[in-house]
Please model this.
Amino acid sequence: MLFSRRNLLLATGGAAALSAVGTMPRRVWAAGKIKTAAIYTVPVEQQWVSRIHKAATTAQERGDIEYTFSEKVANTDYERVMREYCEAGHQLIVGEAFAVEDAARAVAKDYPDRAFLIGSSFKPDAAFPNFAVFDNYIQDASYLTGIVAGAMTKKKSIGMVGGYPIPEVNRLMNAFMAGVKETVPDTKFQVAFIGSWFDPPKAKETAFAQIDAGADVMYAERFGVSDAAKERSVLAIGNVIDTQPDYPDTVVASALWHFEPTLDAAIKAVQGGSFKADDYGAYSFMKAGGCSLSPLGTFEGKVPAEVVAKVAAQEKAIKDGSFTVEINDGEPKSS
Model:
C-alpha cells in the first residue's frame, strides 16, 4: 500500500471535503511586527525544517516578525502546542501538519483571527478560510542536479535514499531521475525509503547497501547518505540544503529550497489584512526564487563543460517559462 500523507490523514479520521477557496470571516491584520510561532516535529537542523527556520530568522532580523519556535514536537502534542501559541497571542502560526492534518485544521477553525501557514499535502479549503498550505516544489532544481549526476556516474548506477514515498519526496526523486536520463538515458536506479524523516544511521546503512550493489553516485534525500558516500569514496547529490562545505570531495551539487518567498508572501498578506486559504506551493518554483541549483564549488571544472552549458540553458528555459519540469508525485521505482 502506498504510504502517503493522505493515508496518514485518512487513518486519523478522514479529511474535510475540498472545496473552493474562501477568505476569512474575521480578517487577520497586523501593524508592526507580526508575532510568529513555528512548530516543528523534527530538529531545526533537519533539511526541510532548517529552510523554514532560516527564512523566519531572516524575517525577524529584518524587523517584520517576532519569531519563536518549538522543535521535536510529537504528533500527539502538536495540537496542544498550536493552541498554546494561539492563546499567547501569536498572529501567524507556521508548521508542517502532514500527519496531524485534522488536528491542525481544528485549531485553525477555533482561532479564526489567526493566520496558519502550514505544510500540507492537501489544497486550501473554504471550511478553513485562515489555513493556507505550502510545500517544497523544488522539482526544477532537482531536475538540474540530475543532469549533473548523469555526467558524474561511470557505472551508470545511481542509488537513491528517501524518507517516505510520499508526493513531497517522490516529485523530487522523479525530477532528478528525469534529469539523469537527459544525460545518460540507460542509467539504472536503486530506490529505497527508510520510513523516517530523521534517522541518519539508517539512511547511511541503506546507502552502504546500494553502494555495495554498484552505485557510484548517491541521491541524498536524507541525512546520513552523504556520510556513506564519503566513506566509500563515491559521489553524492544533496537535497534542500547545500552540504558541500561538510563534504567537499563528495557532494557535487544540491537542489536548494528557499522558503523566503513563501513566508514573505504570507507576512505581506497578514500585514495587509488579505490572508486567506491559499496554496503557496508556486512560491517554491525556480521562477519565483523558491529554489536553485547550488554552485559547483569544489567540483568546478570537474563537471564536463558541455553539461554545465546544458544546465545553464535549461535553467534559463525554466525561469522564462519555455520549459516546464514535470511534477510527478508517483512513487519512483528501482530499474
Observations:
- Residues 1-25 have pLDDT under 50 and may be disordered.
- The chain is about 40% helix and 15% strand.
- The chain has two domains: 22-136+259-278, 139-257+291-320.
